[in-house]
Design a protein that fits this description.
Elements lengths: L1 H15 L4 E15 L3 E11 L3 E12 L1 H8 L7 E7 L4 E6 L4 E6 L8 H5 L4 H15 L1 E19 L2 E16 L5 E14 L2 H20 L12 H12 L13 H5 L5 E15 L28 H6 L15 E16 L11
Antiparallel strand pairs: 1-2, 1-11, 2-3, 3-4, 4-5, 5-6, 7-8, 8-9, 9-10, 10-11
Length: about 350
């Protein structure tokens, strides 16, 4: 009886001290995102994630370029040394600034969709006009060539104790606006070091998926299943949402699922990606031939500088002008430094500062 009483007493004390054990995936990574003409955002992040709670500690830095960079910097207003805890059972999010030693707490709220009444209202005349112009523009876009590839580069090795094989993910769409005569090529090139799914990675991915699903449900989004967060596909989806008004809206990769299947059972430990947006011509090209010039359609991949398209877009260079390499509109780099599944004290899911 004494032994049972002592065991229960120790358990109660541990719970009160926040020392109960919980299984988590511990992950450390560093990332860099560079926006051409705007600046570069760097972050080093450490996360511990259970099925119900996630803590993130990050060191962040944004170096802007010019006035535009300062404006973009407002989107990266995160403190230089920051922390966050998303607690699903409490339905609260805790955020703190280490330098200011301040913490705030806010509830997790469901995403509010537009009321049905507003959707039923007749659009304003200006909105109608904009919608008609958008439909007309989309119907004028002609897809000349669209391709998606996943290839093994032959490079292999070990990075941060992860064995890997390197893969190249390349996607591009060559298109033409039949109204303005503009020719464009939007491409994404990703070099990814992929490691096989170890037992630890599989367990960690299951924990992350469980948390993500529960979090989305808290936000009012009910998912039947959670997809693996392979950057190759996620960045493609993000870029499709970010596309500018002259990008082809119907640029689809019919073979994407088959190509991405080559990465099944693999996890990206290093991802080095670049997004390119090339444009040539405009209204002045409308009177020219309906078909694009042969050299302008000679597109292979980003590694070859988009082939003859570069010639068609930039024309002849001046003799005293040194050729410049193709610069990406957006570049991103992520490296996983640590991945571990372990039992940790529940007390680690608490803010280091009092929260208001």
């Amino acid at each position: 009886m004494k032994a049972i009483f002592t065991t229960c007493l120790i358990a109660i004390v541990f719970l009160n001290l926040g020392l109960a054990q919980v299984t988590v995936v511990e992950k450390a990574s560093k990332s860099t995102i560079t926006f051409k003409g705007f600046g570069t955002y760097n972050t080093d992040e450490t996360t511990i994630t259970s099925e119900e709670v996630k803590r993130s500690d990050s060191k962040n830095n944004f170096k802007g370029q010019g006035l535009a960079g300062k404006l973009v910097g407002k989107f990266f207003a995160k403190p230089a040394d920051a922390g966050e805890i998303i607690n699903l059972p409490e339905s609260n999010i805790y955020e703190w600034d280490v330098k200011k030693k301040k913490c705030s707490v806010r509830p997790i709220k469901k995403l509010e969709l537009e009321p049905k009444e507003s959707a039923a209202k007749e659009p304003a005349a200006e909105d109608k006009e904009d919608l008609e112009k958008e439909k007309e523009r989309e119907s004028s876009i002609e897809i000349i060539k669209s391709e998606f590839k996943v290839e093994k580069t032959g490079k292999s090795g070990t990075v941060n104790n992860f064995p890997f094989d390197e893969y190249w993910i390349n996607a591009y769409t060559l298109w033409r606006d039949k109204q303005s005569g503009m020719i464009g090529c939007d491409s994404l090139s990703v070099l990814s070091s992929m490691t096989p799914h170890s037992e630890s990675i599989q367990k960690g991915m299951a924990i992350e998926a469980a948390f993500a699903t529960s979090y989305l449900e808290k936000l009012g989004i009910n998912l039947a299943q959670t997809q693996d967060a392979l950057l190759g596909s996620q960045w493609l989806k993000m870029l499709q949402q970010m596309k500018s008004e002259d990008v082809a809206a119907d640029s689809k990769y019919q073979n994407m699922a088959d190509e991405m299947a080559k990465l099944d059972g693999l996890y990206p430990v290093v991802t080095d990606g670049k997004y390119y947006a090339r444009r040539s011509g405009g209204e002045q090209m409308a009177s020219k031939s309906e078909e694009p010039q042969e050299e302008s359609t000679d597109v292979t991949d980003v590694k070859k500088g988009l082939g003859g398209l570069a010639k068609g877009m930039f024309g002849k260079k001046k003799e005293d002008e040194k050729p410049k390499g193709l610069e990406p509109a957006l570049a991103f780099y992520t490296e996983v430094l640590k991945w571990n599944v372990a039992a940790v004290d529940a007390g680690r899911f608490t803010s280091p500062f009092p929260c208001k």
